[in-house]
Amino acid sequence: MVPFLSKKSSTQVQSDIANLQNLVSSVQGSIGARVDTALANGLADINASINALEAQVGNIASAEDVDAINSSSDGIEADLDDLLASNNIFW
After folding, report:
1. How many whole angstroms separate alpha carbon 80 and alpha carbon 91?
2. Residue 73 is inside which H or E element, if any?
3. Residues whose CB falls within 8 Å of the CB of residue 62, separated by 6 or more in sequence, listed in order
4. Which residue, among 2, 17, 1, has the nearest Cα to 66 in the 3D structure?
């Protein structure tokens, strides 16, 4: 697990989600035409999931809500790892 995805307050989660979104956008922008459409679409889907999470963060009312977002973030991180590994992109 990436350290910035550990259990945190809603403010920290908002910041982490924004940072993750920036990272995915950066990766998506830097790979451009060099990578096949499937990876680009996968990154776009991940970015859409991050946007949905970001929208939910504003309504966090409890620790259970933060736990649910942390769980969702784990899935996004795994998807990104799989996409990058399947296309042999090395940073």
Report:
1. 13
2. helix 63-86
3. none
4. 17
* DSSP character string of 10-68: HHHHHHHHHHHHHHHHHHHHHHGGGS-HHHHHHHHHHHHHHHHHHHHHTT--SHHHHHH
d(CA 54, CA 48): 10
pLDDT at 4 over 80: no
pLDDT in tens, 79-88: 888 887 777 6
**Using CB atoms within 10 A of its CB, is residue 46 exposed (0-12), middle (13-18) or buried (19+)?**
buried
The Cα 80–Cα 66 span in angstroms is 21
3-state secondary structure (DSSP) of residue 87: coil
